[in-house]
Amino acid sequence: MKVIGIIGGIGPEATIDYYQKLLSTYDKLRPNQGLPAIIINSIDVKKALALVGAGQLEELAEYFLYEIARLARAGAECGLMAANTPHIIFDELSRRSPIPLVSIIEATCAEAKRLGLKKAGLFGTRFTMQGQFYPQVFSRAGITLVVPAEQEQEYIHDKYINELIPGKFLAQTRDGMLAIAARLRQQQGIDGLILGGTELPLILTDSSSTGIPFLNTTQIHVNAILEKAMT
């Protein structure tokens, strides 16, 4: 069993969720066989978001590579970033990382294919919804991605940054996001919704009102890193 390294803090609530899911999922896979070794490097989410927002992707990559190197020095043998947005630079990080990294985008695409999705909605930060790193991967699998309208994107981004990352999960925000998901299903014909922000599964816990599956990228990523660590 390889030692798992996590770049966390981006944001803190999602990092906690990752840790808990890693332990519970591993215990289901290997009952009564102990627990995996996990090293968490909790970094500055405000610094990371500022670099993304300013388009300073080279600086962002250097920042993450420095922090990944810390994980490697601490003994991590494989790793992940506990967030979707930083995957905007995943290809470069993967090339230069001292340890193998598991992509949340690739893992989510594989799950979407397994579910037979053809047209999926995508929620996340503005950088995720407007970026090309999700469409580049999903287009190769023949899956179309649909993002909310511009005003809806602003709503989701604002709630994500100012509520979800600080750990505020409000019923009215949940209802607002579910209404957007329902509209995408009715008007755009999506057959699934990617929760492309690792705080989103903490507020969008029930997909029954929309009639489509929600892809919990945190749990999908956890499954993928455990598969990597156990081989």
General description of the model:
The chain has 10 helices and 7 strands. The protein is an alpha/beta fold. It has 2 domains: 4-104 and 219-229, Rossmann fold; 107-216, Rossmann fold (3-Layer(aba) Sandwich). A 4-stranded parallel β-sheet has the order 5-4-6-7, sandwiched between helices. The termini are close together.
Summarize the structure.
This protein is an alpha/beta fold and 231 residues long.
SSE topology:
Elements: E1 4-8, H1 12-29, E2 38-42, H2 45-53, H3 57-74, E3 78-81, H4 90-96, H5 104-115, E4 119-123, H6 126-130, H7 133-140, E5 144-146, H8 150-164, H9 171-188, E6 192-195, E7 214-216, H10 217-229
Parallel strand pairs: 1-2, 1-3, 4-5, 4-6, 6-7
Helix pairs in contact: 1-10, 5-10
- Strand content is 5-15%
**Which regions are unreliable across 5 or more consecutive residues at pLDDT < 50?**
none
Give the strand order, joined by hyphens, for the main sheet. Answer: 5-4-6-7
- CATH architecture assignment of the largest domain: 3-Layer(aba) Sandwich
| Overall pLDDT score | 97
Could you give the count of β-strands? Answer: 7
Which CATH top level class of the largest domain fits?
A: Alpha Beta
N-to-C span: 7 Å
Largest sheet: 4 strands, parallel
- Cα-based radius of gyration, to the nearest Å: 17 Å
| Apparent shape | globular
Tell me the series of helices and strands, N- to C-terminal. Answer: EHEHHEHHEHHEHHEEH
**Discrete helix count:** 10
Structural class, by secondary structure, is alpha/beta
How many separate structural domains?
2
Helix content: 40-55%
Q: What's the CATH topology name of the largest domain?
A: Rossmann fold
